[in-house]
Amino acid sequence: MIDRRAEIAEAFKKYFHHYGFKKTSVDDVAAELHISKKTIYEYFDSKEAVFVYIIQGEAEQAAKAMSRRLEGMTTATERMQMLVHLIFDNASLYLKSGQGLDLHDRDDMANMIFQTAYESILLKVVIDGTQTGEFHLPDEALSPLLLKAVIQQGLQVMRCDPDSRVEHPTTVAVLKLLA
Question: Could you read off the pLDDT of 94-116 as tens digits, one per residue?
Fold first, then answer.
């Protein structure tokens, strides 16, 4: 049986990468799939909803892969260093693969990926490190928010200047917040 929702999303993904979000039309995707626009709207409320669906699927895959990479590490510090590396590595790949998307779309993509895929992993590493005594949080509610802000700001710098070497200073700042 054909998963029509996934088929529609895959066609949109191809168009988003080739033409950008703004230039992708529901009409074009419907024509390619030989279906009506009405059929697309039975599965998705809007073009934006398709975009969110695609990003959430990619974020879930990235989170699973990331969790597998962190499993073998023995200390929370090692896991946090690897987590920051993986966040920047994944963001770099998305920026490169999203060359057809305009800048606004890439910013939204990176923020959504971070929030959906990395936030729970980041929090788990922080909790593990706190429980083992590796991390010392001055404020358990505020510290995770500050960590996310530091990482997101590093990602913003990377989006504005893809050649910047911001990963290492971001990792250092994150570890200092946890010390």
Answer: 776 655 455 455 556 656 666 77
In order of their start, the domains of the chain are 4-43 (1.10.10.60), 54-178 (1.10.357.10)
Give residues with Cβ within 8 angstroms of 38, minimum separation 6: none
DSSP H or E stretch at residue 159: helix 142-160
* Main-chain phi, psi angles of 163, to 5 degrees: -90, -5
pLDDT of residue 141: 84
What contacts 24+ positions apart, CB below 8 Å, involve 49-54?
A: 50/8, 50/9, 50/12, 51/12, 51/16, 51/21, 51/105, 52/112, 53/5, 53/9, 54/9, 54/12, 54/13, 54/16
Long-range contacts of 124-128 (CB under 8 A, 24+ apart): 125/70, 125/76, 125/79, 125/80, 125/83, 126/76, 126/80, 126/178, 128/76, 128/79
